[in-house]
Model the fold of this input.
Amino acid sequence: MDEKTISQAVIGRLPRYYRYLGDLKDSGIERISSQDLSKLMKVTASQIRQDFNNFGGFGQQGYGYNVDYLYNEIAKILGLHNKHNLVIVGAGNLGQALANYMNFERRGFIVKGIFDINPNLIGKTLRQIPVQPMENLEEFIKSNNIDIAVLTIPKDGAVKTAEILVKCNIKAIWNFAHVDLNVPDDIVVENVHLSDSLMKLSYGLGQRENK
Amino acid sequence: MDEKTISQAVIGRLPRYYRYLGDLKDSGIERISSQDLSKLMKVTASQIRQDFNNFGGFGQQGYGYNVDYLYNEIAKILGLHNKHNLVIVGAGNLGQALANYMNFERRGFIVKGIFDINPNLIGKTLRQIPVQPMENLEEFIKSNNIDIAVLTIPKDGAVKTAEILVKCNIKAIWNFAHVDLNVPDDIVVENVHLSDSLMKLSYGLGQRENK
Done:
């Protein structure tokens, strides 16, 4: 099994499989056929089989998939059994929403520090973590084994902060700023461009009205 | 020009073009070649030409693209010149973050109402819009020409709310809940699954460590 040859498209679909398998697990379902999973997820059974074949199959012909096993194998592939310390840069509403989202912690993402430039927010606590001034960021990352920085700040600040993060050898950036960051290739960047998403919705609305 | 034949992949790239062209416009740049745009956006010039050819090209051979014209044409394709009224269901941190994000209004998305089940939030105002109880949602949508509902609530509430929205003939749902909604095909659904995004980042981190 050579994971390097797996396409980004397949990787992109794994979180959705993981989500459905988690729901099945929570409902006490132990086995599921690719046909039933196909109906549930509204993708073809052949797509499911092809996707899972990338990772060795996970299933026995005719017996369906073992939900718990599959759930755990996908978690392993996605690296969800690892723990990662993160900092949130930007303690506004979005930063607060992410800090308060407990599910991230269940998946191994631990919020260690929160930073902001707004003096009114400094010292405020979010889930018992005090908001610190930006000046502390570099030192904090270096001394607290931080892998991931979450950027929930406007684009100008994000570009400047990314430069600091590169200096600190950050491993990954989860970027909510409305800009593509220019960082070395060995830093993993996952963008959430909310405006882009809203524009796609707008396009869909336009198409709907043209029908 | 038959927009129906344009692939989802091309549509998915338009918001990013729009974003870069907006930045160029703000910097006072009037013309750009596909080569320069290619360097800036880190996609091949041939990809750019192919993408734009889907919509009639927008450029004259040898003269590059007119930034302002291209920006406006993409806005038209994405339907950004239309105004859409929306409601936000869920006045927690994420709902507040979206309500406060002025850029959406610039793009024609007008927040008309905000709803929550939490009695402590009812009557609170976000950008001068009072938070209303969920009981008012159906009537409000029907009488205020609402096209879009933004769901920033947990998944159980989102599934129930989607049923109400279907009854009200909502046109589009911008879904932040960690669940795929089961709604008729004529409702445009754009999902932002933050956990899925974080899992992709986790996978990237795992790959990085295996190198």
Chain A has a mean pLDDT of 90. The CA atoms of residues 1 and 55 of chain A lie 7 Å apart. The two ends of chain A are 46 Å apart (CA to CA). The beta strands of chain A are 31-32, 59-60, 64-66, 84-89, 109-116, 125-126, 129-133, 148-151, 172-175, 188-191.
